[in-house]
Amino acid sequence: MTNDKIKTQQAKNYKNFGLAVLIIVGIIIFFLVIGAIAHYGFLHGVADSAGVNSPAYKAGVAFGYSFGMMVIFYFQSGLFFGNLLALVASLEKRNVFYLVLLHGLLGWYYVVYYALTRKSLSINY
CA 37 → CA 12, 33, 62, 95, distances in Å? Predict the structure, then answer.
């Protein structure tokens, strides 16, 4: 493989990785904005007539608690690291964006598959 092909491939990989990171950051920002809007509305009295005793409020509290516990589990269990590692491994092996996203969703399963099927560890420039 010539140096020009390697540099072109690396440029594609960096572009795809950047897009994947932007999508992940966009999803996180989306959830933060929705949470901030809900919090602002609650603080300024935008609620139904029953207030904090309403079924909607209780369901929102239960959902918020469950979502928070899910996020804590996601980070503490290492699933987040597995997803990022799968994204990087997939970019190293392929340059197809939808496959990179699929492998990122598969997480540790793809990391194990990648470790078992890769041919070499070093790249000669």
Answer: 37, 6, 17, 38
